[in-house]
Amino acid sequence: METIANITINGLATGMLIFLLAAGLTLIFGLMDVLNFAHGALFLWGAYAGIWAYTTTGSFLAGILAALVIGMVLGYLLERFIIKPVYGNHIQQLLITLGAMLVLSEVVKVFWGPNILQAQAPLWLQGSWEIGGLYLIKYRLFIIAVGLIVFLGLLFLLNRTKIGLIVRAGVMDKEMVQSHGINIRKVFLFVFMLGAAMAGLAGVLFGPYSGVIYAEIGLEYGILAFIVVVIGGMGSVLGSMVAAIIVGLLGAYAGYYAPDIALAVNFLIMLAVLIFKPSGIMGMKEAVR
To answer: N- or C-end of the chain: fewer Cβ atoms within 10 A?
Structure first.
Protein backbone atom coordinates (compact mmCIF):
# COMPACT_ATOMS: atom_id res chain seq x y z
CA MET A 1 0.00 0.00 0.00
CA GLU A 2 2.87 2.38 0.78
CA THR A 3 4.33 1.78 -2.66
CA ILE A 4 1.02 2.41 -4.41
CA ALA A 5 0.43 5.57 -2.37
CA ASN A 6 3.91 6.91 -3.15
CA ILE A 7 3.53 6.17 -6.87
CA THR A 8 0.11 7.86 -6.87
CA ILE A 9 1.41 11.00 -5.15
CA ASN A 10 4.39 11.09 -7.51
CA GLY A 11 2.06 10.73 -10.51
CA LEU A 12 -0.25 13.47 -9.23
CA ALA A 13 2.69 15.84 -8.68
CA THR A 14 3.97 15.16 -12.20
CA GLY A 15 0.47 15.64 -13.55
CA MET A 16 0.14 19.02 -11.83
CA LEU A 17 3.44 20.20 -13.31
CA ILE A 18 2.26 19.16 -16.77
CA PHE A 19 -1.10 20.84 -16.14
CA LEU A 20 0.56 24.18 -15.33
CA LEU A 21 2.33 23.97 -18.68
CA ALA A 22 -0.58 22.57 -20.69
CA ALA A 23 -3.26 24.89 -19.29
CA GLY A 24 -1.40 27.92 -20.60
CA LEU A 25 -1.06 26.21 -23.94
CA THR A 26 -4.75 25.37 -24.16
CA LEU A 27 -5.64 28.96 -23.28
CA ILE A 28 -3.38 30.25 -26.04
CA PHE A 29 -4.73 27.85 -28.63
CA GLY A 30 -8.34 28.10 -27.44
CA LEU A 31 -8.52 31.87 -27.72
CA MET A 32 -5.84 32.79 -30.21
CA ASP A 33 -5.83 29.72 -32.47
CA VAL A 34 -2.03 29.71 -32.25
CA LEU A 35 0.14 26.58 -32.44
CA ASN A 36 2.93 27.72 -30.13
CA PHE A 37 5.69 25.11 -30.20
CA ALA A 38 7.92 27.55 -28.29
CA HIS A 39 5.81 27.05 -25.16
CA GLY A 40 8.29 24.51 -23.81
CA ALA A 41 11.04 27.13 -24.02
CA LEU A 42 9.09 29.28 -21.54
CA PHE A 43 9.07 26.30 -19.18
CA LEU A 44 12.83 25.94 -19.70
CA TRP A 45 13.58 29.61 -19.04
CA GLY A 46 11.32 29.62 -16.01
CA ALA A 47 13.33 26.71 -14.61
CA TYR A 48 16.73 28.30 -15.17
CA ALA A 49 15.81 31.87 -14.20
CA GLY A 50 13.85 30.70 -11.17
CA ILE A 51 16.53 28.34 -9.84
CA TRP A 52 19.22 30.97 -10.48
CA ALA A 53 17.25 33.58 -8.51
CA TYR A 54 16.56 31.03 -5.76
CA THR A 55 20.19 30.02 -5.34
CA THR A 56 21.38 33.64 -5.58
CA THR A 57 18.99 35.10 -3.02
CA GLY A 58 18.30 32.00 -0.92
CA SER A 59 14.56 32.65 -1.27
CA PHE A 60 12.41 30.15 -3.12
CA LEU A 61 9.63 32.73 -3.36
CA ALA A 62 12.08 35.04 -5.17
CA GLY A 63 12.75 32.17 -7.57
CA ILE A 64 9.04 31.74 -8.23
CA LEU A 65 8.66 35.48 -8.84
CA ALA A 66 11.63 35.46 -11.25
CA ALA A 67 10.13 32.53 -13.17
CA LEU A 68 6.79 34.31 -13.50
CA VAL A 69 8.44 37.51 -14.68
CA ILE A 70 10.71 35.84 -17.24
CA GLY A 71 7.74 33.85 -18.53
CA MET A 72 5.64 36.98 -19.00
CA VAL A 73 8.49 38.96 -20.61
CA LEU A 74 9.32 36.18 -23.07
CA GLY A 75 5.62 35.66 -23.73
CA TYR A 76 5.24 39.34 -24.57
CA LEU A 77 8.23 39.26 -26.93
CA LEU A 78 7.10 36.05 -28.62
CA GLU A 79 3.58 37.34 -29.19
CA ARG A 80 4.65 40.76 -30.45
CA PHE A 81 7.58 39.85 -32.69
CA ILE A 82 7.26 36.15 -33.56
CA ILE A 83 3.60 35.15 -33.55
CA LYS A 84 1.76 38.37 -34.39
CA PRO A 85 2.96 38.38 -38.05
CA VAL A 86 1.69 34.80 -38.60
CA TYR A 87 -1.78 34.93 -37.07
CA GLY A 88 -4.16 32.68 -39.01
CA ASN A 89 -1.46 30.53 -40.64
CA HIS A 90 -0.84 27.30 -38.71
CA ILE A 91 1.99 26.10 -40.91
CA GLN A 92 3.97 29.31 -40.45
CA GLN A 93 3.15 29.31 -36.73
CA LEU A 94 4.46 25.78 -36.35
CA LEU A 95 7.69 26.49 -38.20
CA ILE A 96 8.49 29.87 -36.65
CA THR A 97 7.67 28.83 -33.06
CA LEU A 98 9.64 25.60 -33.45
CA GLY A 99 12.58 27.72 -34.59
CA ALA A 100 12.08 30.03 -31.60
CA MET A 101 12.06 26.96 -29.36
CA LEU A 102 15.42 25.79 -30.68
CA VAL A 103 16.97 29.26 -30.45
CA LEU A 104 15.78 29.86 -26.88
CA SER A 105 17.04 26.43 -25.84
CA GLU A 106 20.50 27.31 -27.12
CA VAL A 107 20.52 30.82 -25.64
CA VAL A 108 19.97 29.27 -22.19
CA LYS A 109 23.40 27.65 -22.56
CA VAL A 110 24.96 31.05 -23.21
CA PHE A 111 23.82 32.34 -19.81
CA TRP A 112 24.05 29.22 -17.66
CA GLY A 113 26.29 26.85 -19.63
CA PRO A 114 25.56 23.44 -21.18
CA ASN A 115 26.01 21.39 -17.99
CA ILE A 116 23.26 19.96 -15.84
CA LEU A 117 22.44 22.18 -12.85
CA GLN A 118 21.44 20.92 -9.43
CA ALA A 119 18.21 22.14 -7.84
CA GLN A 120 17.10 21.50 -4.28
CA ALA A 121 13.84 22.19 -2.52
CA PRO A 122 13.91 24.91 0.16
CA LEU A 123 14.43 23.72 3.73
CA TRP A 124 10.78 24.25 4.64
CA LEU A 125 9.73 21.87 1.85
CA GLN A 126 12.36 19.19 2.40
CA GLY A 127 11.63 15.88 4.07
CA SER A 128 8.29 14.17 4.55
CA TRP A 129 5.45 13.56 6.98
CA GLU A 130 4.77 10.09 8.33
CA ILE A 131 1.12 9.14 8.68
CA GLY A 132 0.37 5.59 9.70
CA GLY A 133 3.55 4.23 8.18
CA LEU A 134 2.99 6.21 4.98
CA TYR A 135 5.63 8.82 4.10
CA LEU A 136 4.26 11.89 2.33
CA ILE A 137 6.97 13.95 0.63
CA LYS A 138 6.39 17.62 1.40
CA TYR A 139 7.53 19.04 -1.93
CA ARG A 140 5.30 16.77 -3.97
CA LEU A 141 2.30 17.74 -1.86
CA PHE A 142 3.29 21.40 -2.34
CA ILE A 143 3.24 20.98 -6.13
CA ILE A 144 -0.18 19.31 -5.98
CA ALA A 145 -1.51 22.17 -3.84
CA VAL A 146 -0.11 24.83 -6.21
CA GLY A 147 -1.63 23.03 -9.21
CA LEU A 148 -5.07 22.91 -7.57
CA ILE A 149 -4.89 26.59 -6.59
CA VAL A 150 -3.96 27.61 -10.14
CA PHE A 151 -6.70 25.39 -11.58
CA LEU A 152 -9.38 26.90 -9.34
CA GLY A 153 -8.02 30.38 -10.03
CA LEU A 154 -8.29 29.86 -13.79
CA LEU A 155 -11.85 28.59 -13.49
CA PHE A 156 -12.75 31.63 -11.41
CA LEU A 157 -11.04 33.97 -13.86
CA LEU A 158 -12.79 32.49 -16.88
CA ASN A 159 -16.25 32.07 -15.36
CA ARG A 160 -16.61 34.75 -12.69
CA THR A 161 -14.78 37.84 -13.94
CA LYS A 162 -15.28 40.43 -16.66
CA ILE A 163 -11.99 39.59 -18.37
CA GLY A 164 -13.02 35.93 -18.38
CA LEU A 165 -16.29 36.85 -20.05
CA ILE A 166 -14.40 38.82 -22.70
CA VAL A 167 -12.01 35.90 -23.26
CA ARG A 168 -14.84 33.41 -23.73
CA ALA A 169 -16.75 35.81 -25.95
CA GLY A 170 -13.62 36.42 -28.00
CA VAL A 171 -13.31 32.70 -28.65
CA MET A 172 -16.82 32.54 -30.06
CA ASP A 173 -16.84 35.77 -32.09
CA LYS A 174 -13.81 38.08 -32.19
CA GLU A 175 -15.55 40.58 -34.49
CA MET A 176 -18.51 40.92 -32.11
CA VAL A 177 -16.18 41.68 -29.19
CA GLN A 178 -14.35 44.32 -31.24
CA SER A 179 -17.65 45.91 -32.23
CA HIS A 180 -18.22 46.68 -28.54
CA GLY A 181 -15.06 48.77 -28.42
CA ILE A 182 -12.86 46.10 -26.83
CA ASN A 183 -9.33 45.80 -28.16
CA ILE A 184 -9.14 42.05 -28.83
CA ARG A 185 -5.40 42.29 -29.48
CA LYS A 186 -4.81 43.38 -25.90
CA VAL A 187 -6.94 40.47 -24.73
CA PHE A 188 -4.82 38.15 -26.88
CA LEU A 189 -1.67 39.59 -25.35
CA PHE A 190 -3.02 39.18 -21.81
CA VAL A 191 -3.91 35.53 -22.43
CA PHE A 192 -0.55 34.81 -24.02
CA MET A 193 1.37 36.39 -21.13
CA LEU A 194 -0.79 34.54 -18.60
CA GLY A 195 -0.09 31.22 -20.31
CA ALA A 196 3.61 32.06 -20.50
CA ALA A 197 3.72 32.92 -16.77
CA MET A 198 2.15 29.54 -15.96
CA ALA A 199 4.80 27.81 -18.05
CA GLY A 200 7.52 29.69 -16.15
CA LEU A 201 5.93 28.68 -12.83
CA ALA A 202 5.89 25.04 -13.90
CA GLY A 203 9.57 25.33 -14.81
CA VAL A 204 10.78 26.62 -11.45
CA LEU A 205 8.69 24.02 -9.60
CA PHE A 206 10.14 21.28 -11.80
CA GLY A 207 13.73 21.98 -10.70
CA PRO A 208 13.55 20.80 -7.07
CA TYR A 209 11.07 18.09 -8.07
CA SER A 210 13.53 16.40 -10.44
CA GLY A 211 16.68 17.54 -8.64
CA VAL A 212 18.31 18.74 -11.86
CA ILE A 213 17.56 21.00 -14.82
CA TYR A 214 19.05 20.83 -18.31
CA ALA A 215 18.51 22.48 -21.68
CA GLU A 216 16.45 19.62 -23.14
CA ILE A 217 13.58 19.78 -20.64
CA GLY A 218 11.82 22.44 -22.72
CA LEU A 219 11.37 20.11 -25.68
CA GLU A 220 10.61 17.05 -23.53
CA TYR A 221 7.89 18.68 -21.46
CA GLY A 222 6.64 20.80 -24.35
CA ILE A 223 5.74 17.57 -26.15
CA LEU A 224 3.99 16.28 -23.02
CA ALA A 225 1.99 19.50 -22.83
CA PHE A 226 0.76 19.08 -26.41
CA ILE A 227 -0.18 15.47 -25.67
CA VAL A 228 -2.22 16.63 -22.67
CA VAL A 229 -3.95 19.36 -24.69
CA VAL A 230 -4.90 16.85 -27.39
CA ILE A 231 -6.19 14.33 -24.85
CA GLY A 232 -8.06 16.88 -22.76
CA GLY A 233 -9.46 18.85 -25.68
CA MET A 234 -8.51 22.14 -27.25
CA GLY A 235 -9.83 25.06 -25.26
CA SER A 236 -10.80 23.17 -22.09
CA VAL A 237 -8.93 23.99 -18.88
CA LEU A 238 -10.85 21.25 -17.08
CA GLY A 239 -9.93 18.83 -19.85
CA SER A 240 -6.26 19.76 -19.45
CA MET A 241 -6.45 19.03 -15.72
CA VAL A 242 -8.10 15.63 -16.25
CA ALA A 243 -5.68 14.69 -19.03
CA ALA A 244 -2.62 15.86 -17.05
CA ILE A 245 -3.65 13.71 -14.09
CA ILE A 246 -4.18 10.70 -16.37
CA VAL A 247 -0.81 11.20 -18.06
CA GLY A 248 0.97 11.76 -14.74
CA LEU A 249 -0.54 8.71 -13.03
CA LEU A 250 -0.13 6.32 -15.95
CA GLY A 251 3.43 7.53 -16.50
CA ALA A 252 4.27 6.94 -12.83
CA TYR A 253 2.73 3.46 -12.71
CA ALA A 254 4.20 2.44 -16.06
CA GLY A 255 7.60 3.73 -14.99
CA TYR A 256 7.49 1.54 -11.88
CA TYR A 257 5.83 -1.64 -13.16
CA ALA A 258 6.68 -1.58 -16.89
CA PRO A 259 9.54 0.89 -17.54
CA ASP A 260 10.11 -0.46 -21.05
CA ILE A 261 6.78 0.96 -22.24
CA ALA A 262 6.67 4.06 -20.03
CA LEU A 263 7.57 6.42 -22.87
CA ALA A 264 5.04 4.86 -25.24
CA VAL A 265 2.06 4.99 -22.85
CA ASN A 266 1.29 8.69 -23.37
CA PHE A 267 1.46 8.40 -27.16
CA LEU A 268 -0.84 5.37 -27.07
CA ILE A 269 -3.39 7.30 -25.01
CA MET A 270 -3.24 10.22 -27.43
CA LEU A 271 -3.63 7.86 -30.39
CA ALA A 272 -6.70 6.25 -28.82
CA VAL A 273 -8.28 9.65 -28.14
CA LEU A 274 -7.62 10.83 -31.70
CA ILE A 275 -9.23 7.66 -33.08
CA PHE A 276 -12.32 7.46 -30.86
CA LYS A 277 -12.87 11.10 -29.77
CA PRO A 278 -10.83 13.52 -31.88
CA SER A 279 -12.15 16.56 -29.99
CA GLY A 280 -10.58 15.27 -26.77
CA ILE A 281 -12.09 14.19 -23.47
CA MET A 282 -13.74 17.54 -22.81
CA GLY A 283 -12.87 19.46 -25.95
CA MET A 284 -15.14 22.01 -27.54
CA LYS A 285 -14.78 24.50 -30.31
CA GLU A 286 -17.01 27.23 -29.01
CA ALA A 287 -15.20 28.54 -25.93
CA VAL A 288 -12.50 28.26 -23.39
CA ARG A 289 -13.80 26.90 -20.09
So the answer is: N
